[in-house]
Amino acid sequence: MNGLVASLLFSLALTLAVEVTLAAVLRVRGWDLVLVGLINCVTNPIVNVLYNAAWLWWGRTPWIPYAVAAALEIAVLFGEALFFKKTLTFRRLGALRLSLLLNAASFAAGELIVLTRALIS
Fold first, then answer.
1. Hey, where are the domains in the chain?
2. What does residue 83 show for φ and ψ, rounded to 5 degrees?
């Protein structure tokens, strides 16, 4: 399997594991929990492909891919919040807070893995 495809699948699996689990802990239930997973199946691959493209295009200027990553994460935060507000019946935290918590947790998990890999190498 291609390294990029493997990386994208791993990223999606990690994101789904973290965000769906955290959503369940926060008492998101039923169809709402399925929708949390489905929106991540849309947003996660898009973000990761664009982030990898940014490294290919602007990797010699390392701050640019990080700026792209920040812009993508902010767009996902608000995009998912809007989707949650329009589709979920779960209202306990509000759509923006739910999106922020879920995305912060999965982002932190990903960064922890990157850090761990760097320390092991």
1. 3-120
2. -60, -45
